[in-house]
Amino acid sequence: MKRPIVLLVAAASIVFASTHLLADDLRVIANFSVRPDTISDSDLKHIFLEEKISLADGDHVEPVLEKNGPTHATFLQEYLGMSEDDLENYYRTLLFTGRGSQPKVLGSDAEVVAYVARTRGAIGYVSGAARVEGVKTLAIWIPGRERALITRVEPYYPETLKQLGIRGTVRLRILISAKGNVEAVELLGGNPILGESATEAVKKWVYAASKSRTVAEVSIAF
């Protein structure tokens, strides 16, 4: 018999709202030389504002912009918090003071994908409909901000463990698609058997739509 469990959402990603694009119409992409599969929103902003030239692992990164269009407008609004004029003025200041340079600007999704695929350390953005062969899609991590959980399936508490009084909390890291389904689950800590049960349940969870793939951490107490 299944018993209710306590769900604690420890950290998750924000649900974005935009008038420019549908929820799954933006991807942040990177060259395969960029080792992490996730990136925080703050690191993403620092990279595109040229306040950072490397990630925590020390590898060089290079921002790539897409010229104009709804994808570009949404990226500026949601991740940089700037208008096109604000960004142009910002880069002019970097050039004038010698603190940076204008990033590569390309005219289409295909051009961005091709450049990112062949350029070590490159990070860019494209629409959700773009073909992204040869590059990796980064999940966006926004610490301390929740992405709404719409459908929750509670895990089975194995009867044998219950009778033996084996309890505990399982910690999981989950990768959520832009549309809201759970794509992957990683066990971070806790009893492996309880972790297996929790993993099977979490794979059936559904979150609110977002602009891009996101990462969340959840804790489930048995």
What order do the strands of the largest sheet run in, or round the barrel if closed? 3-7-2-6-4-5
- The CATH topology of the largest domain turns out to be D-Maltodextrin-Binding Protein, domain 2
Q: Per CATH, which architecture of the largest domain?
A: 3-Layer(aba) Sandwich
Amino- and carboxy-terminal Cα gap: 14 Å
Q: Return residue spans where pLDDT drops below 50 for at least 5 consecutive residues.
A: 1-24
- SS-derived structural category: alpha/beta
Your description of this structure?
The protein is of the alpha/beta class and 222 residues long. The chain has 2 domains: 88 residues, TolA/TonB C-terminal domain (2-Layer Sandwich), CATH 3.30.2420.10; 115 residues, Periplasmic binding protein-like II (D-Maltodextrin-Binding Protein, domain 2). The chain is 27% helix and 27% strand. It contains 6 helices and 12 strands. The strands form 3 sheets. A 6-stranded mixed β-sheet has the order 3-7-2-6-4-5, sandwiched between helices. A hairpin with a 5-residue loop joins β9 and β10. The longest helix is centred in the middle third of the chain and has 14 residues. It is elongated, with a radius of gyration of 20 Å. The protein starts with 5 loop residues before the first strand and ends with a strand.
